[in-house]
């Protein structure tokens, strides 16, 4: 709870993130930042209202948790269904799902970088907020804006070309896919690859230039040592769709490796807190506080031993050199990590589109209810995602547990915000540029708050400074 | 001709309708030529300003949403319910058959992954959820609806483009409606 005898700054809400949040910055008696509380607002209650429904409905219902990473929900869900049925997906159906999943990763990362974050890098953190967005970008750098828009479009187009829809697609079903990829669509997607690669490289050059020109800020920006969790393949390679879990500590030591996601409950617990609708998960063996870990692009690159594709591997080596092979804790590097992932996704899409089986008709195996429990996992753009279902003997859901990517970054976000607030906010001097930096910390994580609390919203930015009696002594509005 | 003003907002939804709006891709620049997007979750902005067209995604789930939609109604000449959650609550309204405290307890007390040391969220900075989720038209007058979960980018662009050119769109006529 808020300590009444401290001064507070409330930033409400945070814009240009995909979700709805407020921040209270608590000042101590000297007007210095004491700590920040990250409030995630809204809650939709999927775990409860899905009870009583058939487990096979879940790959269709749960994407509606989030319009930005619906495919990851479908994938985690369908894997849980396959465990309930005790079946394996057909090869071609499985690689089609992988392709769709990669497409979503490309569009989500493009959105995060080009639409939401690049205005800060290209127009400046202290530029006029009215123009600090994709349209402002389109005025000043039309070429970059258009390329960013088209990169996101490419990712969305993969779903469109396979299922006829871009968001909340149907067709991802237990056993594989319900629709095949037609040859003409395969060619259309394949033709797009060179452009997509070029645009990701453009993004990489933007972020690298920004790193060079702002080295001090980048390296001191919300450096938050935590544990990291990500999915890896059998050789420890970077993986988004299917694999085993790896936890590392802040020095890069491997805590757990090749962990079957089905054992998540042995390693992850979460705590509800008073100030947020988003819970605080932690690595169970180390307990709350010591066990905070982060997920998502930065975490996945920190845990991975290598990338699967050549161009991404080159960038990955640069990335690893930044901290001499140890994990990178600087939150700003989420952007770089995200673009490296976008690059590997485009390369992997090319490989999949050249797989002779990708247009096969043998895309689905068929099963029926066999077991009462299913756990599925996938790497959403923002991090590891778990769906856990328990059914009765007719396949009706008795219990649903969802562990969402952004939820797992919640403790890390809170920690990073506190660090940035300490660095940039001085109780007696609050400038719009500073607030934007606190917000942009959150934006580094690219939080999908709709997803994590299964809800969403957004409102104006308001900062209030309150004195010990709860009187507002200063109020700043954005604009 | 003075440029029109557009504002968009998401209430209780999944952001999918806004993502579908973004799926108009390059055509967003056509929209920007005819109108200023003065308020949108992907744009920094202050309180919902006076606009010609407000696109509203999601249902009314809480005190803040209610306050916001009443405010938007005053600010907008034309209020468009964007997507099934706004039109008829859709998935967001699936909790309407349950008691709110049961829904809360499932997430914050009884979830299998929860430790037993937590608190149910109750901070004053959090919005207060209503027992029931409402579609927009139960709370305010809605001028136009675009159904779909989400509506296709083509449908959204068509409606916007017609309104921006002072025509009344007819979704049936142009066969832009699709189930699901
Ligand atoms: S209508 Fe569908 S896409 Fe739109 S907010 Fe609701 S669930 Fe999401």
From TrEMBL, chain A:
The keyword Iron applies. Fe cation binds at residues 69, 451. Mg(2+) binds at residues 47, 402, 454. GO terms for molecular function: ferredoxin hydrogenase activity; nickel cation binding. PROSITE patterns: NI_HGENASE_L_1 (PS00507), NI_HGENASE_L_2 (PS00508). Its cofactor is Fe cation; Ni(2+). Keywords: Iron, Magnesium, Metal-binding, Nickel, Oxidoreductase. It holds the Pfam family NiFeSe_Hases. It comes from the Bacteria. Ni(2+) binds at residues 66, 69, 448. Belongs to the [NiFe]/[NiFeSe] hydrogenase large subunit family. PANTHER family: COENZYME F420 HYDROGENASE, SUBUNIT ALPHA, F420-NON-REDUCING HYDROGENASE VHU SUBUNIT A. This is NAD(P)-dependent nickel-iron dehydrogenase catalytic subunit. It comes from Flavisolibacter ginsengisoli DSM 18119. The lineage of its organism: Bacteria, Pseudomonadati, Bacteroidota, Chitinophagia, Chitinophagales.
TrEMBL record, chain B:
It comes from Flavisolibacter ginsengisoli DSM 18119. InterPro entries: Hydrogenase_assoc-protein, NADH_UbQ_OxRdtase-like_20kDa, NiFe_Hase_small_N_sf. The keyword Kinase does not apply. Pfam families: Oxidored_q6 (PF01058). Residues 14-162 form the NADH:ubiquinone oxidoreductase-like 20kDa subunit domain. Signal peptide: none annotated. Gene3D superfamilies: NADH:ubiquinone oxidoreductase-like, 20kDa subunit. This is NAD-reducing hydrogenase small subunit. The keyword Transport does not apply. Keywords: Oxidoreductase. GO terms for molecular function: iron-sulfur cluster binding; oxidoreductase activity.
């Amino acid at each position: 709870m808020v300590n009444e005898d401290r001064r507070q700054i409330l930033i409400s809400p945070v814009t240009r993130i995909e979700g709805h949040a407020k921040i209270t910055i608590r000042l101590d008696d000297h007007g210095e930042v004491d700590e920040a509380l990250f409030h995630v607002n809204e809650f939709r209650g999927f775990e409860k209202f899905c009870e009583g429904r058939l487990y096979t409905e879940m790959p269709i219902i749960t994407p509606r948790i989030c319009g930005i990473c619906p495919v990851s929900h479908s994938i985690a869900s369908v894997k849980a269904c396959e465990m309930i049925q005790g079946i394996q997906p057909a090869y071609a159906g499985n690689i089609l799902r992988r392709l769709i999943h990669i497409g979503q990763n490309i569009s989500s990362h493009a959105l995060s970088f080009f639409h939401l974050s690049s205005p800060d890098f290209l127009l400046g953190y202290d530029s006029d907020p009215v123009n600090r967005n994709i349209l402002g970008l389109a005025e000043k750098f039309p070429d970059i804006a258009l390329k960013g828009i088209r990169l996101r479009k490419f990712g969305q187009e993969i779903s469109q070309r396979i299922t006829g829809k871009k968001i909340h697609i149907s067709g991802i079903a237990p056993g594989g896919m319900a629709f095949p990829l037609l040859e003409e669509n395969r060619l259309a997607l394949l033709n797009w690859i060179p452009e997509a690669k070029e645009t990701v490289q453009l993004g990489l050059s933007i972020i690298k230039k920004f790193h060079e020109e702002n080295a001090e800020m980048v390296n001191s920006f919300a450096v938050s040592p935590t544990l990291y969790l990500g999915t890896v393949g059998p050789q420890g390679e970077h993986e988004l769709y299917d694999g085993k879990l790896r936890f590392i500590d802040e020095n890069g030591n491997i805590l757990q490796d090749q962990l079957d996601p089905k054992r998540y409950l042995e390693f992850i617990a979460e705590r509800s807190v008073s100030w947020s609708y988003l819970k605080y998960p932690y690595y169970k063996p180390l307990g709350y506080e010591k066990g905070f870990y982060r997920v998502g692009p930065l975490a996945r690159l920190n845990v991975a031993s290598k990338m699967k594709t050549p161009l991404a591997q080159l960038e990955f080596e640069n990335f690893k050199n930044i901290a001499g092979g140890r994990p990178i804790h600087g939150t700003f590097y989420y952007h770089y990590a995200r673009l490296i992932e976008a690059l590997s996704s485009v390369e992997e899409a090319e490989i999949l589109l050249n797989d002779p089986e990708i247009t096969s008709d043998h895309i689905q195996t068929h099963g029926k209810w066999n077991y009462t429990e299913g756990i599925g996992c996938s790497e959403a753009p923002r991090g590891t995602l778990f769906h856990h279902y328990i059914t009765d003997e007719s396949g009706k859901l008795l219990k649903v547990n969802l562990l969402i990517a952004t939820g797992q970054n919640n403790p890390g976000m809170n920690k990073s915000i506190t660090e940035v607030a300490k660095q940039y906010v001085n109780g007696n001097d609050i400038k719009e540029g500073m607030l934007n930096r606190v917000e942009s910390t959150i934006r580094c994580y690219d939080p999908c708050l709709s997803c994590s609390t299964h809800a969403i919203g957004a409102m104006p930015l308001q900062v209030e400074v309150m004195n010990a009696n709860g009187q507002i002594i200063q109020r700043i509005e954005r604009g | 001709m003075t440029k029109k003003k557009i504002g968009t907002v998401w209430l209780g939804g999944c952001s999918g309708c806004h993502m579908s709006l973004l799926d108009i891709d390059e055509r967003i620049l056509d929209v920007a030529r005819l109108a200023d997007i003065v308020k949108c979750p992907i744009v920094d902005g202050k309180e919902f300003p006076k606009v010609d067209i407000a696109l509203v995604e999601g249902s009314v789930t809480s005190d803040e949403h209610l306050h916001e939609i009443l405010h938007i109604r005053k600010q907008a000449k034309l209020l468009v319910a964007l997507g099934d959650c706004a039109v008829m609550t859709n998935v967001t309204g699936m909790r309407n058959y349950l008691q709110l405290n049961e829904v809360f307890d499932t997430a914050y007390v009884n979830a299998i992954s929860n430790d037993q040391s937590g608190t149910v969220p109750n901070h004053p900075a959090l919005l207060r959820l209503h027992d029931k989720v409402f579609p927009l038209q139960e709370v305010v007058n809605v001028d136009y609806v675009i159904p779909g979960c989400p509506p296709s980018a083509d449908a959204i662009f068509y409606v916007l483009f017609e309104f921006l050119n002072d025509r009344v769109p007819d979704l049936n006529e142009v066969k832009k409606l699709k189930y699901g």
